[in-house]
Design goal:
Layout lengths: L12 E4 L1 H4 L10 H6 L1 H7 L3 E4 L3 E2 L11 E5 L6 H13 L3 E7 L8 H8 L11 E3 L1 E3 L2 E3 L13 E3 L5 E4 L14 H17 L3 E5 L34 H11 L7 E7 L4 H8 L8 E4 L23 H15 L6 E2 L9 H5 L5 H13 L4 E5 L14 H4 L3 H12 L4 H11 L37 H5 L5 H13 L1 H9 L2 E3 L7 E7 L4 E7 L5 E4 L4 E7 L6 E2 L2 E4 L4 E6 L1
Parallel strand pairs: 1-2, 1-15, 2-5, 5-11, 11-12, 12-13, 14-15
Antiparallel strand pairs: 3-4, 6-10, 7-8, 9-10, 16-17, 17-18, 18-23, 19-22, 20-23, 21-22
Helix pairs in contact: 8-9, 11-16
């Protein structure tokens, strides 16, 4: 299998949440054997790059993002040998594997932290961030007023002492101290261990948070009722991250290891360009979340469902501000969502127009600039967990913390449930639906993770394979069209421009090649809209309705209608 430079430019990525993808041993939990079992399906779909969410040993406080041993596979997912088999079988099918590597924190059960906690003279004590608290009116308080993403304070007191340790996320996930060179060398050794095993790259989780404001001063932003404030400038996308990642890149000694950074929603394109510059950067691709929540859904606990509406103007702006700032110097990923977000069909699509909107979202994404990443189940039109009870969502530690907070704020459990069904990240971790048999063909045992309500209605792999007009077959055709070398080169090299910036309902863009122009037109609404069209069509390469309604240079676009056109 060739492993030349920039191979990701010809890849179609696919995101697998292993616990929910396929159960290979019948215990109700997805695993590596299940992924191996479905490699032929993935190859036939057309994907050739798998990002697998965390599979390292973990107590699973945060679904594997709390790592207790970086050198071994979590037994719930299989054995170390199973992973080697997965690498071998995937590579035989020309599918590359990217592991999810958590660099910002470990589990509090990791041996490093246990030694740090019990011996302040141990080298591992400086692998983490410990600070003395401060006394205010005789009461011991945390060192700063910073808030974490999961709980109120980023600080957790060490029992029986006046010391606190730092955690950006769960209190069971203490941040490591990247300011310590010895800690950095440990992570470089871990990464290279897996590269030697055959891993093709890493998705670097929460990499935006490796640098901290070492002044450890209070935020001056307005504080909440609990006296804390979420000031991401204190621990997100700080300048130190660049130098840390430069050292990580150098540790691979020139090997073409794909590094994908998760940099969150606070980074600006200009900062991203520095990190992912093809010549001077340290990352090959970076995930921001700017195009994920463009419907007002994020933090929308007080809103009604009907208030959630895709802001097409904002989508255009966010896609293009990254393209315009970065494309000349950087490769970029394309995605609608991942395991931390609701299902894109429920975000920007429609259950009423499920077939049409799922195909529209595929066509819109696949032919934009960048390397596409599909979230598992996207290709069969998986939706949010609209019938799941409250306990299905609180399996996730972040959502569980939110539940307590919302209750304190006075929201009823029904209001909270409605919000979770719309916006919680457990929606993106639901069981993959393989057929309409018991448990959707995922397992012969009742799955631990939540299962959608619609697998018996034909929204599964087996039924959609047999339907030539299904969402799955549309995805397969679209993926193979995108992988065509001529189309892929046009998408990545030809200038990209938005057609009609001011249209509030239609996202349309044009790749202006020397000999060929490629155009996408997508209606994001569940009703007909009109779109002015001043071009000549040479060929319709993809569409989700029969025929077109075009008269006097105006398209009548039906609900969620999409077109991929080759222009004269």
């Amino acid at each position: 299998m060739e492993n030349g430079s920039n191979w990701w430019n010809e890849a179609i990525g696919y995101i697998i949440y292993p616990e929910s993808f396929k159960d290979g041993n019948g215990d109700g939990i997805g695993d590596l054997r299940g992924i191996i079992e479905k490699l032929d399906y993935l190859k036939e779909l057309g994907v050739n790059l798998l990002w697998i969410c965390p599979i390292f040993a973990s107590p699973m406080d945060d679904n594997g993002y709390d790592v207790s041993d970086y050198y071994h596979i979590n037994p719930r997912f299989g054995t170390d040998e199973d992973f080697i088999v997965l690498l071998k079988e995937a590579h035989q099918r020309n599918i590359r594997i990217v592991m999810d590597l958590v660099l910002n924190h470990t589990s509090d059960e990791h041996p490093w932290f246990q030694r740090a906690l019990h011996d302040e003279n141990a080298p591992e004590h400086d692998y983490y961030i410990f600070k003395k608290g401060r006394y205010v009116d005789g009461k011991l308080m945390p060192p700063t007023n910073w808030s974490s993403f999961f709980t109120s304070s980023v600080w957790e007191r060490v029992p029986g002492t006046d010391e606190f340790y730092f955690h950006t996320f769960s209190r069971k996930m203490p941040d490591v101290n990247w300011n310590n060179p010895s800690l950095r060398k440990e992570y470089f050794k871990i990464a290279n261990y897996w590269v030697e095993k055959g891993v093709d790259g890493f998705r670097l989780d929460a990499v935006a948070h490796l640098g901290k404001d070492l002044s450890w001063s209070d935020s001056t932003l307005p504080v909440g009722k609990d006296g804390t404030v979420l000031d991401t400038s204190k621990f997100s996308n700080r300048p130190e991250v660049f130098s840390y990642l430069k050292e990580l890149r150098a540790s691979f000694l020139g090997k073409p290891v794909l590094l994908i950074g998760e940099v969150g929603g606070e980074i600006q394109p200009e900062q991203g360009r520095l990190l992912a510059d093809r010549e001077k950067g340290t990352l090959n691709l970076l995930f921001n979340f700017d195009t994920v929540w463009n419907n007002g859904n994020f933090g929308s606990i007080g809103k009604k469902d009907e208030e959630i509406k895709t802001d097409v103007l904002l989508l255009k702006h966010n896609f293009m501000r990254w393209y315009e700032a970065c494309h000349e110097n950087c490769d970029m990923p394309l995605y609608w969502c991942n395991h931390d977000h609701p299902r894109v069909l429920s975000q920007y699509g429609s259950l009423k127009y499920r077939n049409e909107s799922a195909k529209m979202l595929a066509n819109t994404l696949l032919f934009f600039y960048g390397t596409p990443f599909l979230h598992y189940g996207e290709e069969i039109g998986l939706a949010n967990l609209l019938e799941a009870p409250l306990e299905s969502f609180t399996m996730d530690v972040g959502t569980k913390d939110s539940l307590s907070s919302f209750r304190r704020e006075g929201y009823s459990d029904q209001e909270i449930l409605n919000f979770f069904r719309r916006a919680a990240r457990m929606n993106g971790r639901s069981i993959m639906q393989w057929n309409h048999d018991e448990n959707a063909g995922f397992s012969k045992t009742l799955p631990r993770m939540p299962l959608g309500f619609d697998y018996k209605e034909g929204f599964d792999v087996q039924d959609e394979m047999e339907d030539p007009y299904s969402i799955l077959n549309f995805y397969q055709y679209a993926i193979n069209l995108r992988r065509d070398p001529f189309i892929n080169d046009l998408v990545l090299r030809a200038p990209l421009e938005i057609v009609d910036w001011n249209h509030p309902d239609v996202l349309s863009y044009l790749h202006r090649g020397n000999d060929t122009r490629l155009m996408v037109i997508s209606n994001f609404r569940p009703y007909e809209v009109y779109f002015t069209f001043d071009y000549q069509i040479a060929d319709i390469l993809l569409q989700n309705y029969d025929g077109v309604i075009l008269k006097d240079h105006v398209f009548t676009l039906r609900p969620f209608e999409t077109l991929l056109l080759r222009l004269r």
